[in-house]
Amino acid sequence: MAKFLSVNFTVSGKVQQVFFRKCTQEKAVSLGLVGWCKNEPNKTVIGVVQGKDENMAKMKKWLQTEGSPASRIDKCVFEKERSVSELEYKDFSIVRKSR
Asked: What is the set of active-site residues?
């Protein structure tokens, strides 16, 4: 029986160099969610978020409408929404490019 939701997201607009990933991590942690996010070369932020249904709804709304204080969200796309019986991540991390 599925207890959690999982969804992939892509956010576009002014979402890089405005602390969007850090604020996304803070919001996810405050809601008890897990997953990851990272910058993409096309200036979007992508990621996966997982957790309980009610908190996932809050996170999705935040990704669509709020973001970091200096960000401008033009579009937020959610894909691969699915139910999972166990969380696949231990925390919410920021993936950085390896050098």
From this structure: 21, 39
